[in-house]
Amino acid sequence: MAELTVNFLGKTLRNPFVLGAGPLTYSGEALVAAWEAGLGAVVTKTLRREPADNPYPHLVDIGRGTLINAEKWADLTAEQWIEREIPLAKKHGVVVIASVGHTPEEAEELVRPVEDAGADFIELVSYNESTMIPMVEKAKERVKIPVIAKLSPNWPDLPRVAARCLAAGAAAITAVDSYGPVLRLDVRTARPLLGSPYGFGWLSGAGLKPIALRAVAEICLANPGAKVIGLGGVSSGEDALEMLLAGAGLVGICSVAMSRGLRVVDTLTRELSSLLDELGYASVEDASGRSLPHLLPAEHKERLRFRYHPEKCTDCRLCVTRCPYGARRLEDKKMELDEEKCRNCGYCVSVCRPGALTSDRLRGWA
Ligand SMILES: Cc1cc2nc3c(=O)[nH]c(=O)nc-3n(C[C@H](O)[C@H](O)[C@H](O)COP(=O)(O)O)c2cc1C
Q1: Which terminus of the chain has fewer Cβ atoms in its 10 Å neighbourhood, N or C?
Q2: Residue 204 CA: which ligand 1 atom is closest?
Q3: Is residue 280 packed enough to be buried (19+ CB in 10 Å), middle (13-18) or exposed (0-12)?
Q4: How far does residue 232's CA lie from ligand 1's centre (Å)?
């Protein structure tokens, strides 16, 4: 069985799954419930000087595992987190990452009391790229526990921001926060789905995954050896492995635990474990970063080699009907490809759910 425990900044975590800051980490009791569901570590809702006052409504499921929200930071006071919530979680053995936002002044004021309350790590978060580096510097002056910088996918040059955070003393990077602003409307009422200014909100869950993966990969390519928590859109063991392959050392989840409940942690752990076994990875650490050597700056221009596996074919014919160029024919489980018409786009392989059509790039060449 592949090894799921991970050494993260000197602490052994029982598995790589971290519950990101969000509604399921709103109190000490919530952190304990997440811990009891089997997470490797849990991030608190973000502490600030003033508790948040959220608009109504501020959280909407827009389908396909994707959410938009206009939820701010913690609605409990920082004092309450420091005096009650973090100590309560620590009494139950939770590995606590305390999230602190969003300005250098708040970092300066809050990180030491949070460390004294028992937090194992600090995660700094900001809406604004320019405040992140001073936040890291202020935190590093004040605490001994490792400081993690959480980056927003809205910032244009994440590899550079990550490098500056690491140079300022951050021990790890979390990538990413939710993406936005975004907008959805209700066609029946003509009103925005969220009660925030202009109805604007932030996207998370499945729709965010490709953005998060790109962020993790580009940070890791530019900062070899950086410890990264890959967070954004993970909703299966396969997604988790994808995050690891892109260079993450730990895998964050938030929206999936809201859509499917904390029971999902058990499913994700089992799915990841069996995939690691199936693909021959000895451990989470063994899988981490394995895709990075394949992420090359040059275009790939070798023609695809296709293979058809009739025993897996369900005759759904999507490979034929979806081909924009009419290049495929399928008759009595005999596949033909018109090489003249085929543009090597690879779409046919990607729509073949049973894996009857594979290529040397997609779904394996077996
Ligand atoms: C309703 C909601 C509230 C959130 N609140 C916070 C927060 O207080 N602090 C923070 O750093 N991130 C917050 N996040 C962002 C998540 O921690 C995470 O970065 C983001 O949702 C992407 O992960 P996911 O796609 O797995 O949900 C929140 C996300 C959601 C959906």
Answers
A1: C
A2: 25
A3: exposed
A4: 9
